[in-house]
């Protein structure tokens, strides 16, 4: 597995005979910390271009699953079949920009000769003209825009996003939702978005999953009637 200096762009873990109609194929995935199975024989498929959101209680294993897909799970044992594409980008709650690199240099980090693509990516995320700014000159929302540009300039087949808007204020979040939708339409990666926000999941995803007891406990298409109530019930927020 290769990883860039920012730790954000990964080569996927061993890829086996992936079905061409799937971007992610997971079978019987188990991940155990000590005695505790956080993921327990989990199965999941995601199709090319599909946007899937993953909800679940704190500690239910959402980030563990995302790290397994990114090939970033060094300190956990487990087994199972895990097929993911070669080009995977990851966005976290914090932008993780290198403070000693200017904005454009952060976007094209590890991609020699990609400055023009980097400039276009910055324009796409609404940051044209900020190429030579330092990260600490940007707001939190702007830094997340840079993180998105850095991810998408690699044209990932799979974008993994771990609560990417969790630290932003409500208004900025809504703007970022619109931006992410636009970027996904333009670049069409498969997306797995981890979030605590039921409304964010429904607004962004084609399909919403709830992780519980190490498995997918509920699954709804976002255009299904009554999805919000169903998801809140599955999360135990409202009575069954
Ligand atoms: N490095 C680790 N060592 C031991 N236990 C861990 C480690 N990382 C995670 N865990 C445990 O695994 C469980 C799942 O953690 P994970 O971070 O995947 O949950 P999560 O659903 O993403 O939670 P949150 O919504 O709070 O971010 C938790 O009980 C956590 O304490």
From TrEMBL:
Keywords: ATP-binding, Cell membrane, Hydrolase, Membrane, Nucleotide-binding, Translocase, Transport. Its EC number is 3.6.3.-. It is an enzyme of class 3 (hydrolase). InterPro entries: AAA+_ATPase, ABC_transporter-like_ATP-bd, ABC_transporter-like_CS, ABC_transporter_ATP-bind, P-loop_NTPase. GO terms for molecular function: ATP binding; ATP hydrolysis activity. Signal peptide: none annotated. PROSITE patterns: ABC_TRANSPORTER_1 (PS00211), ABC_TRANSPORTER_2 (PS50893). Pfam families: ABC_tran. Residues 24-238 form the ABC transporter domain. Transmembrane segments: none annotated. This is Sulfonate transport system ATP-binding protein.
């Amino acid at each position: 597995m290769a990883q860039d200096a920012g730790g954000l762009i990964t080569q996927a873990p061993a890829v086996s005979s992936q079905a061409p109609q799937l971007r992610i194929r997971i079978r019987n995935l188990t991940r155990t910390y000590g005695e505790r199975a956080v993921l327990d024989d989990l199965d999941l498929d995601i199709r090319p271009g599909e946007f899937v959101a993953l909800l679940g209680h704190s500690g239910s294993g959402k980030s563990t699953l995302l790290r397994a897909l990114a090939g970033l799970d060094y300190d956990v044992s487990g087994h199972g079949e895990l097929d993911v594409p070669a080009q995977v980008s990851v966005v976290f709650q914090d932008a993780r920009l290198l403070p000693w690199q200017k904005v454009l240099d952060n976007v094209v980090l590890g991609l020699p000769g990609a400055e023009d693509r980097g400039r276009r990516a910055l324009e796409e995320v609404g940051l044209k003209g900020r190429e030579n700014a330092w990260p600490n000159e940007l707001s939190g929302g702007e830094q997340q825009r840079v993180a998105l540009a850095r991810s998408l300039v690699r044209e990932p087949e799979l974008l993994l996003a771990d609560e990417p808007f969790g630290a932003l204020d409500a208004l900025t979040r809504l703007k970022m939702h619109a931006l992410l939708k636009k970027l996904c339409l333009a670049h069409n990666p498969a997306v797995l978005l981890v979030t605590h926000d039921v409304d964010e999941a429904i607004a962004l995803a084609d399909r919403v999953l709830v992780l519980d007891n190490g498995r997918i406990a509920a699954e709804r298409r976002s255009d299904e009637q009554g999805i919000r109530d169903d998801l809140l019930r599955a999360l135990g927020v409202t009575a069954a």
